[in-house]
Amino acid sequence: MTQLETAMSILMNVFDTYAGADGKPDSLSKTETKTLLQKELPGLLQAAKNQGEVDKLLQGLDFNGDAEVDFGEFVVMVAAITCACHDRCAKK
């Protein structure tokens, strides 16, 4: 596989690893999302000044307001964090 295909496969596998622990394999509950962030992006949580910031991030991921993070919302989160880390996205 190409590097991009590998990256896409890894994204799918990471999502699938954490989704479904609470019974719905197609979405992440708040608890599952928090666990994913703690295990896969520990530096992000350590950089947060308080738990309120983490909760705000989790709430912001739920674009459709269903109290869960689906795969599309997850990919948007990863893309946004990647842009912030890479510093190539246009500043608005």
Automatic annotation (TrEMBL):
List keywords of the entry alphabetically: Calcium, Metal-binding, Repeat
UniProt keyword annotation of Transcription regulation present: no
Origin species, per record, is Salarias fasciatus
Q: Which GO terms describe its biological process?
A: endothelial cell migration
InterPro entries hit by this protein: EF-hand-dom_pair, EF_hand_dom, S-100_dom, S100/CaBP7/8-like_CS, S100_Ca-bd_sub
Gene Ontology MF annotations: calcium ion binding; calcium-dependent protein binding; transition metal ion binding
Name of this chain's protein: Protein S100-P-like
Sorted alphabetically, which PROSITE patterns does this protein's record hold?
EF_HAND_2, S100_CABP
One Pfam entry for this protein is S_100
Q: Does the keyword Zinc-finger apply?
A: no
Q: Which SMART domains match?
A: S_100
**One GO cellular component, as annotated:** cytoplasm
Report the residue ranges that make up the EF-hand domain in this protein: 49-84
Q: Which domain of life is it from?
A: Eukaryota
